[in-house]
Amino acid sequence: MKLHSTTSAPSEYAKNPLTKTARAYVWSRYRKGGEKWLEGILAIPAMTWTPEAYSNLALGLLSSPELWKRVEQWGEEADKLYWKNVEIRGDVRKHWPKVLDKWKEVTRPWSSLELLARIVDERHVDTMSKKPSAEQVMNILDQALGSDESVEPLRQKGQMLSHYVERIFLFLDTQHVDPERMGRLEWGWLRVLEYTKRGAKVLPKQVTSSAKVFVELLKVVFRAEGEPQNKTMSEDERRIAKQASRLLRDIHTVPGYVASGAGEVVDSSALREWVIEARNLARDAGLLEVCDSQIGQILACAPSSLDGSWPCVEVRDLIEEIQIPGLENGIQVGKYNQRGVIFRGRGGKQEWDLAKQYRELAEKVRNRWPRTAGILDALAKGYENEARQWDQQAKWDEYE
Q: Which of 179, 303, 321, 339 is most deeply packed, by most CB within 10 A?
């Protein structure tokens, strides 16, 4: 758009909203002419100043408390249109409460999230005279989740959303938020948090501290015994199931785990009680088999003992006590999956090294914990088989 004269009627102002080119034009004219130019535009006899026209004119000017006051004087509808479309740039540390209040009125939680991320940046938060409250921040997170726009399309627009959300959650980590409230927020934002270094902190702890929560997740993800495998799921049910599955994969500590100054400690009583309760609840729900496997995969995250043996004594004692093959197999699966993506060398040297490691671990525990040694032997045997396959592949490659 190009305006040829400051005295001609700018009918383009009636369109909502102005293009970036038009806003740049308005700003360039205002920088040259100042308030005199603005007053001249407003006084044009041929111009019909509708709420849309007022809003568009304001959108081309620099955001400031003075402008916001003027827009309010132009009427409620013009004020609403302006705040629905304005983009706030520059230093907002002094005026952010006004902006957040206005965006709340016109339902712009996603814009509020971006602004919050800038406000709570650790480089600025200690120098601000006024800081957002944890409740204010959590309310905006809730509003964004409840808005018409979903998280997934926004995440796909760019990685900045993950950056903003992580920064906001890191701020909440310093605010002593009720764990239950934080857990609900992490559940809502799990699809975004999984792309951040912070990830979900509170939710996994809630799962490993409550057997009931753990089994509720199993009910969402897996079919109960006797339940039709081809049962149709709604789109919402599929989304929740995927999210619950992500959460189960994000558990990296065992029930009863406590990190202290003295090192990693596992409360054997808490661990045992959690496992027994989870199995009882899963049995009632027709999910005992899958429960045993999932418990085993969680136990694969157990720390080592001080002497370097693995898993820790508390987990080994539990394995010997309950003697559940499905759980033991789950430990093998979980431990194997922890290897993740690897960079291959020639042949199976990496696998031979792992096999040796697990054989040595098995020998450390064999006399007192034979079933645990059996798990470690099985892992060693699996890697030995893989090592032979890679060695054979290397020989084949020599002839090609």
A: 303
Sequence-distant (≥ 6) Cβ neighbours of residue 8 within 8 angstroms: 44
Q: Largest alpha-carbon pair distance within the chain?
A: 98
Domain identity same for 221 and 324: yes
Q: Could you tell me if 309 and 359 lie in one domain?
A: no
- Of 199, 117, 107, nearest in space to 147 by CA: 107
Rounded CA separation 225/119 (Å): 51
pLDDT one-digit tens code per residue, 57-109: 888 888 888 889 999 999 999 999 999 988 877 666 678 889 999 999 998 88
> Domain check: are 278 and 354 in the same one?
no
- pLDDT on residue 208: 95
- Do 175 and 109 lie in a common domain? yes
- Give the integer Cα–Cα distance in Å for 325 and 362: 17
pLDDT of residue 238: 87
Whether residues 146 and 170 fall in one domain? yes
**351 near 380, Cβ under 8 Å?**
no
User: What would the mean pLDDT of 345-355 be, rounded to a whole number?
Assistant: 88
State the pTM of this model.
Answer: 0.76
- What is the Cα–Cα distance from 163 to 27, expressed in whole angstroms? 31
Q: Per the domain annotation, does 142 fall within a domain?
A: yes
Structural domain count, the chain? 4
Q: Residues 128-161: pLDDT tens digits? A: 557 789 999 999 999 888 876 545 445 444 568 8
Q: What is the pLDDT of residues 282-316, one digit of tens each?
A: 999 999 999 999 999 999 999 999 899 999 999 99
Cα(261)–Cα(149) distance, integer angstroms: 44
Residue 207 included in any domain:
no
Report how far Cα 71 is from the mean position of its chain's Cα atoms.
38
Query: How far does Cα 256 stand from its chain's mean position?
Result: 24
Domain of 319 in residue numbering reads as 214-226+248-340
54 and 71 in contact (C-beta within 8 Å)? yes
d(CA 389, CA 377): 19
Containing H/E element for 266? Answer: strand 263-266
For all residues of the chain together, what is the average pLDDT?
85
Residue 17: predicted pLDDT: 55
Rounded to whole angstroms, how far apart are CA atoms 101 and 180?
A: 27
146, two tokens = 């409840």
355 and 387 co-located in one domain:
yes
